[in-house]
Amino acid sequence: MKKLVCRVLKSLLLALCVPAAVLAQTAAQAPIKLAMIEGLSGGNANGGEAVFRNLIWAVERVNERGGVRLPGGARRLALQRYDSKGQIEEALSLLRAAIDDGAQFVVQGNSSAVAAALIDAINKHNEREPQRRVVFLNYSAVDPVLTNEKCSFWHFRFDAHADMRMAALMAVLKDDMAIKSVYLLGQDYSFGQAVLREARRQLGLLRPDIQIVGDELHPLMRIKDFAPYATKIKAAGADAVITGNFSNDLTLLVKAAKEVGFDGKFYTFYGNALGAPAAMGDAGIGKVLAVADWLPNVPTRESEAFYQAFNARYPRPVDDYVHMRMQLLVEALAQAIERAGTTEPAAVALRLEQAAVTLGGQSGTMRAADHQFQQPLVVGVMDRLGSPGVRFDVEGSGYGFRVIRQITAAQAQQPTSCRMVRPG
Predict the structure, then answer these.
(1) Which of 40, 72, 205, 290 lies at 20 to 30 Å from 162 by C-alpha?
(2) Adjacent-strand bridge partners of 407
(3) What's the CA gap between 296 and 307, in Å, rounded?
(4) Angle, in degrees to the nearest 10, between helices 227-235 and 248-260
(5) Are 314 and 53 in contact (CB under 8 A)?
(6) Beta carbons within 10 angstroms of residue 354's beta carbon
(7) What percent of the chain has pLDDT over 90?
(8) Residue 311 CA neighbour count, 13 Å, CB half
(9) Which residues have C-beta within 8 Å of that of residue 381, sequence separation ≥ 6?
(10) What pLDDT was estimated at residue 4?
(11) Are 110 and 129 in contact (CB under 8 A)?
C-alpha cells in the first residue's frame, strides 16, 4: 500500500512538472514583439504603409536566418501594427495597448510631434513600471530636439536629424552660384519649424549673398490645393525652394508648382519618393534634389544587390519605397538582443548604445552620448531613367535620382547638447 501511494504521488508530481517545463519552453520560443505605432490611415497613410513594408522585410530577413539567438534558444521577431492615424492622443493610447500586448520594443517615426510625446510617455512608464519597460526605436522623426534637449536613454534615432540633412543639402547648394534667392516653405509643427530655422542659419553662414524671398509655414496635412503657395513662390522670383515637406504635402506642392510654371529648383528632404517624382515629371529633371541616408543609385555592387532584393520582395512599382536606415534599425536591434543575451529592455538599450551594423555596403554606428545614429548621407538630383547614373527609377515613374554628393558619417556628424540620464 505504501509503495502504491508513493507511485501515485510520483505520477502526480511528474504531471505537475511537465506543464511547467512546456510553459518555460514555450516562453523561450515566443516571438519578440515589436510594436509599430504609426499613421496607417489619414493624410500620411501611404507613408505608414511604406514604412511597414520596409520593417516587415527586415524582420523576415532576421527570421529567415533562424531568428535572434539567445541562451534559451532562438526567437523570431514579430512586427505588430497599431494605427495611430497620425494623432498624438491615439498614439499614446496605442502605446499602452502595445505594452499590455507584451511588446518590449516600440518603433515609430512619421511625426516628430508624436515621437516627442512617446518619449515623454515611455520615460514615465519605465520609471513607474520597471518590470514592463520598453525601448523606443525611431526611424524618421528628425526634429533635432529629440536627441538634444529631449534625449532619453530609452530612445534611439536611426535617421539623420534635420540639421544633419540640411548640412548635406547645403554642401550642394553653397556651390550652386546660379541660385540668388530662395523660398522657405514648411509644415507648421516642430519638424517643419526646425527645418526652416536651420535653413536660415546655414544660409547665413554659407551663402549670405542669397536672398530669402519667402519664409512660410502651412498646416500639416490639411492643404488640398497648393496653387496659392506655388503662385507666391513664382511671383517672389525664387530660384529655389527649400522644404522638409513629405507625403501629400510634398506631392501636391510639386504638382502645383508644375502647373503654375515655376522653373526653379526644389531642395528637399523627401523629394525622392511617395509620388513626388511622377508629380513633377520632366519639369523636375535636374531641378529636384533630395537628401537621404541612401538612394537606389548609390554606385556600388552591394547597394545594387540590396535594391534588387527589395524589388524581388515587392515587385509592384507602387510599393517601391525602400530605406536603408529602417533595415539597419532592425539589424541593430537583433544584434543588441543577441549581445545582451536577453530581451530585457535596459540590457538591450546598453547594447544598442554600442551598435555597429552593415548591410548592402552601408554602415552605421550608434553614438552613445545622445543615441543618434551616425551614418553616411547622399544627395541626389532627379533625372530620367537610363541617364548616366540613373539605372533605377522611383515607383515606376521613369525618373530616378543620380547621386551627386556623398557625405561620410564623420562629415554628417553634428554636435549634441544631450545630457543623458541613465537608469541607476
Answers:
(1) 40
(2) 377
(3) 6
(4) 50
(5) yes
(6) 13
(7) 85
(8) 13
(9) 286, 287, 288, 289, 401, 402, 404
(10) 45
(11) no
CB neighbours (10 Å) of residue 222?
11
The C-alpha atoms of residue 23 and residue 26 are separated, in whole angstroms, by 5
Q: How many CA atoms lie within 13 A of 2 on its CB side?
A: 0
Cα 212 to Cα 191, 215, 246, 262, 286: the distances in Å are 20, 7, 22, 17, 22
Beta partners for residue 136, in sequence order: 106, 155
Provide the pLDDT for residue 3. 52
Residue 19 is predicted with a pLDDT of 54
67: left (phi over 0), alpha (psi -120 to 50) or beta: left
Query: β-strand 372-374 against 362-367: which pairing, if any?
Result: antiparallel
Please give the pLDDT value at position 281: 87
* Three-state secondary-structure class, residue 155: strand
3-state secondary structure 18-52: HHHHHHHHHHHHCCEEEEEEECCCCCCHHHHHHHH
Q: What is the pLDDT of residues 235-266, one digit of tens each?
A: 999 999 999 998 889 888 988 998 999 999 99
Query: How far is Cα 133 from Cα 347, in angstroms, rounded to an integer?
Result: 11
Sequence-distant (6+) residues with CB within 8 A of 170 are 202, 203, 206, 207
pLDDT < 70 positions in the chain: 1-28
User: pTM for the complete prediction?
Assistant: 0.89
Grid cell listed for 10:
510520483
C-alpha cell at 368: 552613445
382 Rama sector, left if φ>0, alpha if ψ -120 to 50, beta otherwise: beta
**According to the model, what pLDDT value does residue 208 have?**
97
Q: What end-to-end distance do the CA atoms of the chain give, in Å?
A: 59
